[in-house]
Design brief:
single chain; alpha+beta; five-stranded mixed sheet; two-stranded antiparallel ribbon; 13% strand
Amino acid sequence: MFDLVHVWVIRQLTLGEFSSRQAVLWKAVAMAAKIAVFAYGLNVLSHFILVGLGLLPYPLGPALVVATMLTPPVSFIVAVIAYSVVGLAIYDLGVSRQRFETLSRTDMLSGLMNRRAFLDTFEAARGPVALILLDIDRFKLVNDTLGHKAGDDVIVQTANCLTNVLGPDEAIARIGGEEFAVLLIGQGTERAMEIAEAIRASVEGMGLEISGRPVSISVSAGVSDGVAELGFSELFSGADRALYLAKASGRNRIVHAKDVPVAPFAAPVSDDGQSAVNLSRLSA
């Protein structure tokens, strides 16, 4: 019996998490009402015990009237205040934790997933998947001729094209300086190529202007598909080789991994003369 009462009390006192400040207040009122009833019951019981022991220094009737008038409202008010203070603190901590988690998984410039969040999403995927790797063509030239602010604008607008084509809830990430990745779950080759082409066309036609000057932007992309259970490395390797071939073939185009010749590849080189995105950096 004692164990059951103990479990019930703990369950009643546990605040848990809250979806809003209003939910905190409703919980505080509900808990305070229970505490007021419990406190009143204890008060009345203690009076009868004192009567039974002959220790009550005043008549029982007036004592019960005073207990009824004072104990429930006082205990209710105190409990509401206490629960509200603690509940609001828990709610604020939950909001702060959620914001921190969001920031830790978001690329702050583009607003897309960062590589950590993207890899976590892939690890949770099952069944058929497709991976699209995209790289902004001649991005270094934009930075060198128009400045880094212009480069940031290009990244932001490219990210907007990706979300416009795919929707804000899809797995889209900025995985490097001018490099993006898209994970399509439950999609095969044909659909992945269609989406990659839609992204390429959207970027090419976005009509970006920087400091009053029209700027022509394009992307190259590599696509690979398979099943998630094969692991990220294999899909990434195929898409990375396809992206390199798209760059080497003139840029502003899409290449699927199955169209890459079976031959040794040199280390892919991006437009800034550095090695293209690689798995070790993505997984860092």
